[in-house]
Amino acid sequence: MDRKIFFYAGFFLLGAAIVLIPCVVVIGLRSNCSDKSPQSTVTASLATTPAGTTPVTLTNTIATIWNESDYQSNSQYYQSLTNSHYFNQTDNLRLDRLSSPQLHPVDGRSLIYWRQQYHMPDLRGSTTTLHWQDLHSNKNVQLTRPIWGKHDQQFTWIDKNTILFLSNRASSDLTQIFQLTLPDDLSSLSGFIEPTQITNYSLNIDNLLVNRNATRLAFSCQVYANLDIEQTNARKQAELDSGRTIYKFDKLYIRHWDEYYTGLRNHPFIVSINRQTNGIFQLSPYPVDVLFNIDSDSPTKPFGDAKAQWSFSASGNSFAFTRQHDEDSSVAWTTNLDVYTVDLRTATQSPVCITCENIATDTDPSYSPTDENLLIYRSHSVPGYESDQYKVKVYNGSMNTKVTLLDNWDRSIQAMTWSPNGQSLYLEIGEEASNVIYYLVNIYTNHSVDLLIDNGTSHNIHPDATQEQTFVFTYDSLLQPANIYLYSWDGSIRALTNHNTALLSKVILSKEVEKFSFMGANNEAVWGWHVAPANGTNQRAPLAFLIHGGPQSSWYDAWGSGWNFQSYSAQGYAVIAINFHGSDSYGQNFTDSITGAYGSLPYEDLKLGLDYALANFSYIDGNRVVALGASYGGYMIYWIAGQPEMSSRFRTLVNHNGLFDMRAMGYSTEELFFTEHDVGNYTVYDNPSAYEVYNPVNYVANWTQPMLIIVGAHDYRVPETQGIGAFTALQRRNITSRLLYFPTENHWVLNPHHSIAWFEEVFNWMRQHAS
């Protein structure tokens, strides 16, 4: 149900600008709270640059006064603590989040990255700033001023002295483009650098991409398809002034993920840029909407971004982008994304679709850094199947040909990055529950691959322009949160950043993490994780039996901001997490095996996996086992509840946003292709029995075990009525149960105070029933 996003939930916590008042409703433990939580980013006023004029350059505009006395890093806070304590979710949320490392574009001797910090110790606010670090001396400098509620993002290192980035530091509180001018010697910098605002549009800028020559850039705004930026702003203001709030729909989507579709679209705008005599970049006065009058998004919603879905050619004269065919309701039951290119030298040139012959997904175009005509992209071959295997295709525009690389692989390629020489590729691939890095030696002559990183979870590769097979990247695992690392040409790897060292030195974590395998359904090998309690295995311990969502996902060797194994082990629980049939990273056949088998093969794997764990980890108390699952994992909780042979093995069940009634899901979820494909490519009306064969709602009469149900009101993937219906069934059957209702959350819990409340409620429930 959420394969592509389940393990990236943490990154949406990173992007949240948060000054929040918790608002949680516990049915049975009611508390009244307003849903009008103050937001850290509020549009106080809208700039009014007339259409067709050059955006005003605003120099050193800071919307909030810097209050140094209100700033404390997590290092400073944890260094002040005297004693160590067992890790908890509050510690997890206090971790600095590091991402998007970029090496110096000329000499590769330093890097810049972004760092998100939370207000210490209460988490009431966050800020994201740019940092610089010298690779040789390890000197680290915070470049931009940390102001609560202000977030720098999507930066590009143009040359040794210039960075362009997005930030909501504008006086209007809107996200705009800023320029940071760096001194020649950053190591001697003693204060912060105040950025220069170079755009002043009346809408937020959501994405930014600059071409290699710094002659053009692309940005996105949410506009009405047939209106420009200023006209969109005027229409939004008129609608606000009308006093009416009415949604009218003639096609799907009505809503998607956590928002209603009321007409605003992500559209890419292209502008020329030039550096003025004062060194500040200026944008051309007429941004060109590449998708003008097309009711579609690029980047695609809800999780697409410019880094993956946009690309400029080597000269900057061509632009490639991904868009979805969502002009009609078929968007809800198809997965047809396509790659388009447009020649920017011709003002009247329309985008050209280069993948329209494939009605499955084509996405993530990336031009060669050296060949104007060469472009790679990721492609599915099965229409309507979001979890199909991604392969890499090479498109040669001069000959209009396509070649599939590594066509005999059975792994799905999650991301790809060109080497600076334009001949090799770095590939991120899910492999046996790790996100590993491969190096494809030469796309022209030698398709052999070298495995560079074979464990943990690696992302955000940025190659060194001066040295082949040298790059920076982020790495995390079940034992450590994300850090920035340098991989060198000789195979050596070293950590570059240490922002969380003080915090980690004051918390007690489990150090015992291991993979195990057993014979699962179909007599095939199935893998799982065992994490021992942080207080050791010398005494009998209860078990947290975790069931992942997706279902075409996996429990990866990755740190999590939400479902973090360490949070459970620190409470004295052993953790067992099975990557059952249908999980990704074990080959496409294994992933595909769950189609039409939601309640069979994975269920057998979970039964056999629990048997294995209790037989092989003797310290686990088999009489104190709790099962927890979210999304598809929540579906499995409901399914287990109706199977007495399995449900009786658990003292209680915990269900987060799970699927309760498959037929109702088939009509109420937004992305119909999920349910239709996963039952065997049937609609509800064509084959109702396909939705009933493994439908938990049909087995409510067998339910006996206490259950905690958690729902988010803005979850449109698994609508709240699924959880409310299950809670109603439990109450009607007089089974001990509780509904935890988050009126402002979606499929995930993003507000840090809500996340803490989530864990408090879950652990209290577990202690009550499994102590």
TrEMBL record:
UniProt keyword terms in alphabetical order: Hydrolase, Membrane, Protease, Signal, Transmembrane, Transmembrane helix
Highest taxon above the source species: Eukaryota
Pfam annotation, one family: Peptidase_S9
Protein name per Swiss-Prot or TrEMBL: Peptidase S9 prolyl oligopeptidase catalytic domain-containing protein
UniProt similarity note: Belongs to the peptidase S9C family.
One example GO MF annotation: serine-type endopeptidase activity
SUPFAM superfamilies in UniProt: alpha/beta-Hydrolases, DPP6 N-terminal domain-like
Protein source organism: Rotaria magnacalcarata
GO terms under biological process: proteolysis
Cross-referenced Gene3D superfamilies: alpha/beta hydrolase, TolB, C-terminal domain
Spans traversing the lipid bilayer: 7-29
Residue ranges annotated for the Peptidase S9 prolyl oligopeptidase catalytic domain, each copy included: 562-770
